[in-house]
User: Fold this.
Amino acid sequence: MLEINLLGCCVSRDVFSYDNEKRYSIKHFMQGSSPISMLYSSKPYQSFRLEDINIGSPWEKRCFLAELNSSFLDAIKEWDRGDWFIFDSCELRYPLYMSEHPDGKYYLSSSFILDKNLDLLESEKFSGDKFESYKLSDFSDTEIQNIAKDMADFLKTIADEDRIIINEIYLVKEYLAKIGTISSMDDNFYIRTGVNTQLKYFTEEIIKFLPKAHIIRFPENVLCDESNKWGLSPLHFFDDYYKYVYNAINIITSQCGNEKKALNTLWQATNMCFAEKMQFYNKRSERINNRINFANTLFEETDGQNGSHNLVSAPCFETDWTFFKDGVAEGFFDTNKKILYCSSSNHNYTGIRIKLNCSQDDAGKSLVFCVKIDEIISMRSDIGYIQLWYSGLNAPIKALDIANITNDNLLYIVTAKIPTDMGMDNAIYGVIQTKNGVLKLSKAVAFIEE
Assistant:
């Protein structure tokens, strides 16, 4: 098993979540410090202790303590060398707080860890500081070039140059939304301030200063993923990206004779694959957006009542819905307030369902069930589901399609082909159910796509 040391953002670390072959062991990993504060920050007026940091995991606190005490480089120097050292430049993206000290400038990276502990800036230990804010774009090309040279010089003191891997990473604004569409993070601070320009220049420069290092190029058409385990961010990508980087690391660490050719072949094949995926996602996104737009039109035109379109049902919540519950679940459905409630300490649930008016003539067509929720109140992640159920005479209920209800989403669409054995004894139901929580419902509509 090869030992890996990592300095950079969570992206490089998350690659090893895909190490199913157990080839690698992460020996050391730190993040949360810009190369600028790491390399140039003077010492604070008063040193900090771990107990001064209130919020964060033990690992986050250790990283932040090194940042506060300007001891990041000292901590890294104590690492065992390991077999390979992976570096990425994405921590350079952080804005900086800077205070003039007699012995130089004191920097703090405005990282996600600092964001959790902003009250520290008002503490007595910072009483002598007058902080100014700097963005990466405030630094000139010459300054960024010097930072790249100094960072390269430091890396060569803690790892053999031919054992350094530079993982090229940039921020991405397009993401796969949980509902299946492609959306954009245009309002994200890092996207708005265009840090990729400086990150690209820094990466190009540090590669020049590390000619023996191994380079993993950033592929084209990378997407972020709202379902990423860390949540939505311009650096939380879809699974295929991490698999690409993992395969690239395997090529490098295998020390094959044609590494550059193998890496370039992988990069080109990945670009082709991601381009095809992007084409698929764009078509799917267009299809889903059309469904959403049509559903919204029906919501407005019918106000939840049956209309004259290709509707199989446009039900309001006051009529036609049947309340049900599973096992020992406690709950109710208030038809006046449109509130579905469930209290369960296990996996039991309550729900409401409505029979949708499909027939044999509709077999093979797409059935779309769209639900709007006004408010979700739940302390659990497994809140409930929106489903299409299919049942027949003396046959078990089968879910045709299902969407997980999450706290950050209020619009749900489930879609399924109407089964070819649809007949008088079979039925399709639109279903809303919750395991634990309160759903304040708005509207629902179901229609058939011709």
Notes: The chain has a mean pLDDT of 88. The CA atoms of residues 216 and 249 lie 8 Å apart. DSSP finds ten helices and 22 strands in the chain. The domain at 311-449 is CATH 2.60.120.260 (Jelly Rolls).
